[in-house]
Structure formats: structure tokens, C-alpha cells
User: What shape does this take?
Amino acid sequence: MLTVEINSSRLQKAIRIIPDLLRMELGDAFDYLSRKYLKVFRETRLSGRPGLKPHPHGIFQYFHRASLVSTSIEGMGMIIFTESQTAKKHEIGGMISNPSGKKLIVPLSSKKELFTSDERLKSQYRKPGSLKNIILLRIHGKAFLAKVKKKSREIIPLFVLKNKIKVIPRLGFFDTWDSLDNLRVQRLNMAIEKALSRV
Assistant: This one.
């Protein structure tokens, strides 16, 4: 991979004459690139459209970076990863359903009273089954959970019941990585030249 992206002749020279110094410079470059990637990823894909809306304790906290430690330069590298299945769904798309077979209870985004100022679901609405004065309401073949106001008897739909939710791919994890291709090449070449300059 490295020999395709960077100046292979300079890389081979550096490997031959200063492997330890090159390993140190490449380690710094990989560290910089992984931090830079996560910063760009958060700013461009996890800060609203066209990506996901930001949340203080949202999906971003499930992404991690690590260096690949190796005694050989060819084995060096970095990984940026997540074990979140939700992140995977947002990356490739797909359908979400309740494993128990029950309907999913989805808050209506148009009901602003359900959400905090940073668009998180308020704690009192996270367990719809514990809410008082809630009725099942059917409108045009769709099922809703609605709140009935005591005094006015006004009925306000709060949640819609669904068998499945379609998730549109919009995370852009790999697209963000591809967008930094030039920076990766530049930074790795810089590491090689820096190592060679110290001979």
C-alpha cells in the first residue's frame, strides 16, 4: 500500500539506511493522520446534514483509533474503527426491526416538545410505556401513541409505531477517508524526507 501511494524509491532508500528513524517519523505521520481523520469526520459527517445530527453522547464516542505496532516498517500503520452496529447501519443503510417482533416506537420529529435544545429525546419520553394519559390512535392505517390532555381532551400524537425503520446510508465513514487521500500521500512523503534529511 505504501509503495503505491508514496515515493517508493525514497522509501526503499530510507528503509535501507535509517530504518529506526524512519519508523519513528512514520509513526508520527500515522498518529497525525488518524487524529486528522477523526476531526474531519466529526466536523463534516457528524455535525448535521448531509451526515448525522450531532449529540453530546452520540455515535462519535464509539469510534476509536490505534497504531499498528510492528518490528518491520512494512507492517506499520493505523486503524480507525467502531464496533457499533448502529454506525454500520448508518454507513451502508438497511432496515432496523425489533428482535422481539414487537413494533418500534418512533418519536415524531415534528413534536419539538419531545426533544432537548440539542435534539436529544427528553428523559421522560425515553420510556413511552410509563407515560400517563397515553392512548393508541389509528389514522389512515398508521398506529400512533397519543397523549390526551386532561382539561381540553385534546389528542396529541407523539410516537408512530412501525414494524421496521429504513436507514439511509449517510455516515460517510469511507468517503471521508477517501477525501483525505492527498493529505495521506503528502504526510507520508514528508515523513520519509524528514528521516532522510537527518542522515
Observations:
- The CA atoms of residues 24 and 120 lie 43 Å apart.
- The first helix runs from residue 2 to 5.
- Helices lie at 2-5, 8-17, 19-45, 85-92, 173-179, 181-197.
- The two ends are 25 Å apart (CA to CA).
